[in-house]
């Protein structure tokens, strides 16, 4: 038979030997197209052994590398950890307790990127966000993952274990773990069986979906230990699913068309993966990779097996068809040896005919063997090249991984360096700002120090000046003491002489009054004095009669002509004449004489008319100032006290009102109209009340309500009338309902709104309140609640003194000015310029003058900012206690005692 265009005679089959019966397995491989053209390639029987031995040697080296790689993998313990350290810490601790220290702990983590990203308080899908936002979030996730991995590594380092990390990103943790086991040929893995909260002592199998998936789908060569809450649950030993894998691999061989694909896939497996497989798995993979290949030579099927580790030779099989399955061939070769050509059936009669055929077949078989050897050599060379390429690829992958790790370290170092540089720059900037702030504060402190030094120098200078002034004041004080002694003697002598002169004057006046007695005028004199009662001289008119201005006996007088039909009868006329001719007081109108035939009274002329007229004037320029009003109040109070204190009978005026209060040229008030006054008997302790038996007389708004209801007249009647008059002086309003208005204003704290603005600016709000409250008390409807006139005078005295010192000069009564005269004995520098009284708590104001503290505070509270003495604006409102004047006051008081 010609193979490849030539025929080769076959003498005998040289390859049939006893060694062919020692083949334990047979492998088939499909011949390539180029193998048909390789016939007659030469080569003897001895040259066929060299490639087989080389292939056996290469396979031994491959097995040795695989065993070394498997041993290296077995030196590592892979532990699957989660993203929460507290959930996996107990399992990692179990591994550290139950693992030898010579093994390396590989921390395995599957990172699942989040599909929903929090943004502005809500969750957004990755598809709806910008790429920059997703990239930033992924970066934060990786940073957090790196921090968690570092914590696991620190735990391993604290237990003195060498630790590595193996991290992969996947959408599903179970798939990621299965992929890691297959890719890195992991042989030992520890992972969680379920969450810690699901742990129980009866747990014997994994419960979590991830654990069940890894248990079912992970490579069978990997031993998986399942833990929960630091307790061993179960272990899946390596090779647990090996039989199933083998069965699936064998079943795939039944399809001839899949043999080539399976072989190609096995050849494409990388060397590191084969090295990382266990030895029994490598044997299975080698068994699956060595599939049967057929070479067709003129209808004869030849099965060629690759070299075996034992060095067995291939077995030749004769057949007439290629339909024999590789599975049956494999089973046949694995069960028994294949018979040689000598066992083929033949007959003696056909031996001569078959000789040529045998030679031809022998030649064909020889050429086929040569071609098979060439193919095996090419396959071996290709396998070596592939293994070398795979080794190079592994090396490149390792170098790439090392370069990637180095790049990551460099990037991390760069990032850390940049962060450190930024932090240092920020600290430097903060230090620069602090330095600038300290410099500013130091500058301010130096300026403040200079100012304080200047103030200290000024204070020292002022202290020296005050010491000099104090020394001078002390010398003046000593001199004043000497003068005081001399003045006291002079004063005592002057007081004694003044007392003697007063007594002499009283005796002279009494004798003069006794001689003059009471003047009576005729009607003709009154007509002459009034120019026959000319209406141009009429100065007043009322229900009592008319008042004319006249010139009588070289004196300007006021002539009161009583109305014959008026309410004032003969009795009242004689009563007023008797009382006014008997009493004398600076604030009582002076009665010059009378004309009994026409019931006319002649008074001294008072040019400023009555208080009622002045209070009702519309012209603000002619209104009474608050000083004049307060002085009038004090004068009327003094006159009432005088009337009530007369003996043996006290006088109750009974008709006190502004119309009966007259004013002289100096606005000194004088009380008149005593027509309805009453004399009350009084003992040393009580006053006998007078009971009115007829209709009460007087002006209704000023009448005592209890007198109107009971007819009982007491001195409290005048107190009620005085209260109404006092409220009119303060407010300028009419008498009707004035008490209720003032009382409401006091309760609301708005009394200043009721003060009469035409009186000028009142000095102190507090004293205005006190005066208003005093007026309300005086006109209380209940007699027992009204104060005595003595108490009223004590409250009016300070205000009256102040008004007298500021207002126009006038002649006051001796009772009113007695207290002021007593103050005149004290040195002027001990008297307050505001109250004109001896100071109790002297304080120096900004103008350099010393005032009573309360008086000056009241002055400032009233809104004034000028000096009470100089009338210039005060630089400040501070008051400083004057200890020198206070000491002088105390010494003066001790001497007075």
From TrEMBL:
Where's the Protein kinase domain?
533-800
**Compositionally biased, Low complexity: which spans?**
1-38
Out of the domains of life, which is the source? Eukaryota
**PROSITE patterns the UniProt entry points to:** PROTEIN_KINASE_ATP (PS00107), PROTEIN_KINASE_DOM (PS50011), PROTEIN_KINASE_ST (PS00108), U_BOX (PS51698)
- EC assignment: 2.3.2.27
Q: Where is the composition biased (Polar residues)?
A: 245-265, 337-346
Bias type Basic and acidic residues, positions: 266-277
Q: Which Gene3D superfamilies match?
A: HUPs, Phosphorylase Kinase, domain 1, Transferase(Phosphotransferase) domain 1, Zinc/RING finger domain, C3HC4 (zinc finger)
InterPro entries (UniProt xref) = Kinase-like_dom_sf, Prot_kinase_dom, Protein_kinase_ATP_BS, Rossmann-like_a/b/a_fold, Ser/Thr_kinase_AS, U-box_ubiquitin_ligases, Ubox_domain, Znf_RING/FYVE/PHD
Its annotated pathway reads: Protein modification; protein ubiquitination
**Protein name, please?**
RING-type E3 ubiquitin transferase
């Amino acid at each position: 038979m010609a193979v490849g265009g030539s025929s080769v005679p076959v003498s005998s089959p040289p390859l049939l030997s006893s060694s062919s019966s020692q083949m334990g397995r047979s492998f088939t491989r499909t011949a390539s197209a180029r193998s048909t053209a390789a016939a007659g390639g030469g080569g003897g029987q001895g040259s066929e052994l060299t490639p087989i031995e080389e292939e056996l040697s290469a396979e031994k080296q491959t097995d040795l590398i695989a065993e070394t790689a498997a041993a290296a993998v077995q030196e590592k313990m892979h532990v699957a950890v989660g993203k929460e350290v507290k959930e996996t810490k107990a399992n990692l601790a179990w591994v550290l307790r139950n693992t030898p220290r010579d093994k390396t702990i590989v921390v395995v983590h599957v990172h699942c990127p989040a599909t929903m990203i929090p943004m502005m308080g809500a969750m957004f899908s990755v598809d709806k966000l910008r790429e920059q936002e997703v990239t930033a979030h992924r970066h934060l996730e990786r940073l957090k993952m790196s921090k968690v991995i570092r914590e696991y590594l620190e735990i391993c380092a604290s237990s003195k274990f060498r630790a590595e990390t193996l991290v992969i990103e996947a959408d599903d943790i179970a798939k990621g773990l299965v992929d890691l086991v297959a890719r890195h040929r992991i042989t030992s893995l520890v992972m969680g069986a379920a969450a810690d909260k699901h742990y129980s002592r009866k747990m014997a199998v994994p419960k979590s979906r991830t654990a069940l998936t890894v248990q079912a789908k992970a490579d069978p060569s990997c031993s998986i230990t399942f833990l929960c809450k630091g307790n061993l649950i179960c272990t899946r030993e390596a090779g647990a699913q090996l039989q199933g894998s083998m069965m699936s691999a064998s079943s795939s061989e039944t399809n001839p068309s899949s043999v080539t694909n399976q072989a190609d896939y096995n050849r494409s497996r990388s060397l590191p993966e084969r090295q990382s497989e266990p030895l029994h798995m490598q044997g299975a993979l080698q068994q699956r990779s060595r599939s049967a290949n057929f070479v067709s030579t003129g209808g004869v099927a030849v099965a060629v097996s690759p070299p075996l580790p034992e060095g067995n030779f291939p077995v030749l099989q004769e057949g007439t068809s290629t339909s024999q399955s590789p599975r049956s061939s494999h089973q046949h070769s694995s069960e028994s040896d294949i018979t040689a050509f000598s066992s083929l059936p033949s007959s003696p009669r056909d031996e001569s005919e078959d000789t040529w055929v045998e030679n031809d077949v022998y030649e064909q078989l020889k050429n086929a063997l040569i071609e098979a050897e060439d193919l095996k050599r090419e396959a071996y060379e290709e396998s070596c090249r592939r293994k070398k390429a795979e080794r190079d690829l592994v090396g490149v992958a390792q170098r790439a991984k090392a370069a990637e790790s180095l790049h990551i370290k460099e990037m991390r170092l760069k990032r850390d360096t940049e962060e450190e540089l930024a932090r240092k720059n920020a600290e430097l900037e903060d230090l620069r700002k602090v330095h600038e702030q300290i410099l500013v504060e130091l500058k301010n402190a130096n300026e403040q120090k200079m100012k304080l030094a200047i103030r200290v120098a000024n204070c020292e200078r002022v202290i020296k000046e005050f010491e000099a002034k104090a020394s001078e004041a002390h010398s003046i004080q000593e001199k004043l003491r000497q003068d005081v002694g001399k003045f006291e003697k002079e004063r005592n002598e002057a007081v004694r002489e003044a007392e003697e002169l007063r007594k002499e004057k009283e005796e002279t006046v009494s004798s003069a009054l006794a001689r003059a007695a009471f003047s009576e005028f005729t009607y003709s004199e009154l007509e002459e004095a009034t120019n026959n009662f000319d209406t141009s001289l009429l100065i007043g008119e009322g229900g009592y009669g008319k008042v004319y201005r006249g010139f009588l006996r070289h004196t300007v007088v006021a002539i009161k002509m009583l109305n014959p039909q008026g309410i004032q009868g003969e009795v009242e006329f004689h009563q007023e004449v008797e009382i006014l001719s008997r009493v004398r007081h600076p604030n009582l109108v002076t009665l010059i004489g009378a004309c009994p035939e026409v019931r006319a009274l002649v008074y001294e002329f008072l040019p400023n008319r009555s208080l009622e007229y002045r209070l009702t004037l519309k012209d603000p320029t002619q209104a009474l100032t608050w000083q004049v009003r307060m002085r009038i109040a004090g004068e009327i109070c003094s006159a009432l006290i005088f009337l009530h204190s007369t003996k043996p009978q006290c006088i109750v005026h009974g008709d006190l009102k502004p119309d009966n209060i007259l004013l002289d040229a100096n606005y000194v008030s004088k009380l008149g109209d005593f027509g309805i006054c009453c004399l009350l008997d009084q003992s040393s302790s009580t006053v006998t009340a007078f009971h009115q038996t007829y209709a009460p007389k007087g002006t209704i708004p000023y009448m005592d309500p209890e007198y109107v209801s009971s007819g009982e007249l007491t001195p409290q009647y005048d107190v009620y009338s005085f209260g109404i008059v006092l409220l009119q002086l303060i407010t300028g309003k009419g008498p009707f309902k004035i008490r209720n208005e003032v009382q409401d204003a006091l309760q609301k704290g708005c009394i200043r709104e009721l003060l009469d603005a035409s009186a000028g600016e009142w000095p102190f709000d507090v004293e205005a309140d006190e005066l208003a409250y005093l007026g309300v008390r005086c006109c209380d409807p209940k007699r027992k609640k009204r104060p005595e006139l003595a108490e009223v005078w004590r409250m009016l005295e300070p205000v009256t003194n102040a008004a007298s010192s500021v207002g126009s000069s006038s002649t006051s009564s001796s009772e009113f000015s007695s207290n002021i005269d007593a103050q005149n004995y004290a040195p002027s520098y001990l008297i307050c310029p505001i109250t004109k009284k001896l100071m109790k708590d002297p304080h120096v104001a900004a103008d350099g003058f010393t005032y009573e503290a309360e008086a000056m505070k009241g002055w400032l509270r009233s809104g004034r900012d000028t000096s009470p003495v100089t009338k210039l604006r005060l630089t400040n409102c501070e008051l400083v206690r004057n200890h020198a004047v206070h000491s002088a006051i105390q010494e003066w008081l001790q001497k007075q005692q």
